[in-house]
Amino acid sequence: MAGVVKMPSQNDFARYRDDFPVLARPMNGQKLAYMDTASSAQKPRAVIDALREALDRDYANIHRGLYALSQTTTQKFEATRRKVADFIGASSENEIVFTRNTTEAINLVAQSWGRTNLKAGDEIIISGMEHHANIVPWQLLHDQIGIVLKIIPVLPNGTLDMDAFDGLLSDRTRFVSIVHVSNALGTINPVETIIRKAKAYNADILVLVDGSQSVTHMPVNVLGLGCDFFAFTGHKLYGPTGVGVLYGRAALLNAMPPYQGGGDMIETVSFAQTTYKPAPARFEAGTPAIAEVIALGAAIDYVAAIGMDNIAAHEGMLLASLVEQLETVPGLTFYGTGPDKAGIVSFTADWGHPSDIAMILDQCGVAVRTGHHCCMPLMQGFGVEGTVRASLGLYSNVDDIISLMNGVTKAHKLLGA
Prior knowledge:
Oligomer: single chain
Number of strands: 17
Helix content: 40-55%
Mean pLDDT: 95
């Protein structure tokens, strides 16, 4: 019937899994169950092919050459900028800056906007569950100009203490930088509420959202969120490494000074003075990751064709099953048990160290992550050195959960005796 959209079935997702060549290879003689997507997602053939083609067929430097190869590559590069803008709901492709990763995007904002607009005593609010990439850049700013860093506490269930957030807002608050989905816990933070409260307190407070995990697991619309900046990285979104994205409102980006200097970000250069292009070019000094940006465009095409709502539903079903089954294993403690979660499960066992559990899982063909997950303050708050983290992707399936459960059960027998 016209107007009816058919939702992908589990058979469809089984077919999507076949798009990822690495998942067909064994690990330690076992069928691979890749459950470390939160660290870095595997790549579909469409991305691999786009990367290869960008190097095989059309490679040339961009923005400078008048010859056909350069023009073709430039068009493909800039087409990705438009795809990114559409994917996250930005007003214009001119609000999309290509960086190396989320880390560089946050550092860009801290050093360009922060060094220009903040002074000693100004306050920045972050949360207790931030990745180091959203802690250290602000600590550097503290050391450089004396800004004050204030922390939203994390409750025992791995959610933010929103009452405490209200109390942190003050006349000195200038900026809030918050993770959308915790990479260590899977907690989906109420960023819309945080942004609304911050803007209601003072409309001049700016908000950056670290979307490294959210763009992988759910639809994102930056205009709907109301954020001023949004950052994510390509390799978690089934794209290549070495490319990330900073979204910033056009008026903010064009008022910010360059973060780095070099070729392709200038209008004119003399020994007396240099003038700069408008955003986004002013923040993209030097030759960028050309093939990687083009391949990121292929990754966005791939997930957009499946539908982020569909991916979220698929992962949500698997997450519920994974948690339900892990809860049957004696001695596990779970971190991040709030009601709003993406496809990440983090746990410890009273009968075994996370590293020992992960080594046994490795022998069972199961790839998980252990440690502090670049969230040392969060782990310290929970009183643990680290956790075992299993994270889902669009290619995850019930067989992965069975393999994980078999491995955890084996670890319990070996370590818990």
